[in-house]
């Protein structure tokens, strides 16, 4: 049995040299359909048993491996499961044969290439999946041998170029880590990290924006179903919303991880040094100017002369919402609220949802600083519409309400603003757990400003009653006492 196993493993290693190309005109079951169907049935039956045993080493069958190998070599079009199951088989050999790990990784790569060739279109969706397959190939290379980071980097870079929208979070994570390895081993310049970070950040931002739009559509569909009294449809939309929310959180986690990995390379001093050298080489490179202004803004390095120079130059070469946003940041930093508001308003015309959100948020802050609280709230609400998964706009509105307390007189009216403010903080936490810490800090501060039980009683109210906050706020809230 041991001899048979060694021979079989050797045969597996040699697969890369012996794949038989199947002509497009042949049946998906190959030249010998009877043999193909027989081997398919054999390997699948053994594979089910191995799967049920949770892929335990003692439960693998060499008969399964032999039958699977014949299917892969002679009828590679027969089923996509040949490749997904083949991954499990190769991963088993990688784990259990460390001395021959690289040979099995090579075979695993060959599997991915073959899958991309024969199943370039996903049978379930009818859409291309080549970029996704190549992304997985790069991930597997990097996962099983990080010393092959250059190979993984090249594969993942090509996958992004094919269709970045197909890349899962794990592929994006592996690509950025491999990029960092390239720079640390002096196989790429430091600018590569910045470029890839920006590229992948945009991918994730676009994913989150698309998911946010889907969430808004699902919420509306659910409301329509509720109005129609269709309980089954409502339950279905709840499941879809839960799945969509989970995917949003995954993407937010990927974005956070990208930021954390980038942090050691993202000090203002380092970024300015790298960008200044690049801008000196190609001062009219619009793509570079956009990258400079975007990343320096994200990393709060906008006080630098480089940021201003890049923003002004970008506006000269290509007046656009992006250029307007950068100038808005500069005027905001200079406390020139009206000028900043003009440019942020222009910046809201962008198609980039992340930038659009930030433009609305900053525009609202301009009006807040100019004392126009009602106008600021309207704009923060627009920011919330752009990114309905972000709790920050509601925290900003809460702060507007608290700020306006001095505009109200009376024991109750001057305190009611804090009830409305806490309501907004609670909403922020409910839709965006990532802002919970900030929301809780505000809630503690605002709750301390609630009226006492005695004040509520002597003004002929009681806890739990509804209360309409007047003035520019105009919202209904619930009476609560300071504890």
| Unreliable residue stretches | 1-25
* Gap from first CA to last CA: 76 Å
- What is the chain-wise order of helices and strands? HHHHHHHHHHHHHHHHHHHHHEE
Please give the count of helices: 21
**Morphology:** globular
- Overall average residue pLDDT: 90
Beta-strand portion reads: under 5%
How many whole angstroms does the radius of gyration measure? Answer: 29 Å
Spatial strand order of the main sheet: 1-2
Query: What is the number of E strands?
Result: 2
Q: Class by helix and strand content? A: mainly alpha
* Major sheet attributes: 2 strands, antiparallel
* Percent helix: over 70%
What does this structure look like?
The chain is mainly α and 483 residues long. It has 21 helices and 2 strands. The protein has a two-stranded antiparallel ribbon with strand order 1-2. Strand 1 and strand 2 form a beta hairpin. Helix 9 runs antiparallel to helix 10 and helix 17 runs antiparallel to helix 18. The protein is globular, with a radius of gyration of 29 Å. The N terminus is likely disordered.
Brief summary of the model shown:
By secondary structure, this protein is mostly helical. The chain contains 21 helices and 2 strands. The protein has a two-stranded antiparallel sheet with strand order 1-2.
